[in-house]
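Why should sequence recovery work at all? Because a backbone constrains its sequence more than one might expect. Tight turns favour small or flexible residues, buried strands favour hydrophobic ones, and helices have their own preferences. The token representation captures these environments compactly. In the example below, the structure is given first.
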């Protein structure tokens, strides 16, 4: 085994403004601080959800990105306050499941993904969200599910 277990260098946390995402962020920040790892804060604009909007696509996209960037700024501030030195925000447009599970982890050499058990729009807290289930199944690295 070439690398130590739990020797995480690149940690990805998916944030969507939900309570569980906030918990995931807190865990990811704590681990990143302890491991002196790079923390990637990922927010995904769901292309599918936007494309069905009655508004102009570009207008909705711009509003969505602005809301996400505000949320990411808060998260960056929180992480840096907790003394995580290397915080990289990412805003991606696409399919949240694939973006979180495989696209970003592969592109950024992520070795730990931290996700909330459920995200926005999930009603039952005792059920894994569909995005979370997908991430656990398809991610190329360890996944920490926070609930």
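From this structural description, the recovered sequence reads:
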């Amino acid at each position: 085994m070439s690398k130590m277990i739990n020797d995480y260098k690149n940690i990805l946390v998916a944030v969507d403004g939900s309570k569980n995402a906030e918990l995931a962020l807190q865990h990811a920040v704590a681990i990143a601080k302890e491991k002196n790892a790079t923390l990637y804060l990922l927010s995904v604009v769901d292309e599918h959800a936007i494309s069905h909007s009655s508004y102009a696509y570009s207008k909705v996209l711009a509003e969505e990105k602005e809301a996400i960037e505000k949320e990411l700024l808060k998260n960056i501030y929180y992480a840096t306050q907790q003394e995580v030195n290397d915080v990289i925000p990412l805003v991606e447009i696409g399919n949240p499941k694939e973006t979180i599970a495989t696209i970003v982890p592969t592109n950024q050499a992520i070795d730990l993904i931290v996700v909330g058990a459920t995200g926005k729009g999930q009603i039952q807290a005792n059920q894994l969200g569909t995005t979370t289930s997908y991430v656990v199944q398809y991610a190329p690295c360890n996944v920490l599910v926070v609930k």
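A few observations help interpret the result. The radius of gyration is 15 Å.
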